[in-house]
Amino acid sequence: MIPLNHLEVWLRGPLPDMPALLQPVAHALLQAREEVNSLMDGFPDALLREQPGNVASVGFHLQHLSGVLDRMFTYARGEQLSSSQLNDLSMESTPTGSFLTTVDLVRRFNQQVDEALLQLRQTDQSTLTEVRGVGRAQLPSTLIGLYVHAAEHTMRHVGQLSVTARIIRWS
């Protein structure tokens, strides 16, 4: 018998108090958190800005992971981004920008996942097909579309983070 903590999150069973239709989103976010925490354990702050092959840095991915969740879940609530969120967004794309420590960035991501999970738990499944506007142009999406995009975009960047961090660590 394989211990549950050795299985991917989605194979560990339903999460308590999580709407059934949002279980896959929650599972993906929890999987991302586990992978980020494991991968970043002991990662040197001095390497956060390294860009091997001119790819996005580890620091960028860590900032972007938190930012994407924050922005997508803001739109899911039917809100527009605040000036602080817009400022954070502009800082993500600045490779020479000031990064916090690895521990700070991972802590911020963990907090963002916690906030996302709370919002998912509070979501009425009957509202999942409601239209939500994205960005200043209010491009149309749905509540479930935003949640699924947040999860898949998060996992995409976790994959990129994983490769970049491993290349940097073992170069």
Automatic annotation (TrEMBL):
<dbReference type="InterPro" id="IPR024775">
    <property type="entry name" value="DinB-like"/>
</dbReference>
<dbReference type="InterPro" id="IPR034660">
    <property type="entry name" value="DinB/YfiT-like"/>
</dbReference>
<dbReference type="Pfam" id="PF12867">
    <property type="entry name" value="DinB_2"/>
</dbReference>
<protein>
    <submittedName>
        <fullName>DinB family protein</fullName>
    </submittedName>
</protein>
<feature type="domain" description="DinB-like">
    <location>
        <begin position="29"/>
        <end position="161"/>
    </location>
</feature>
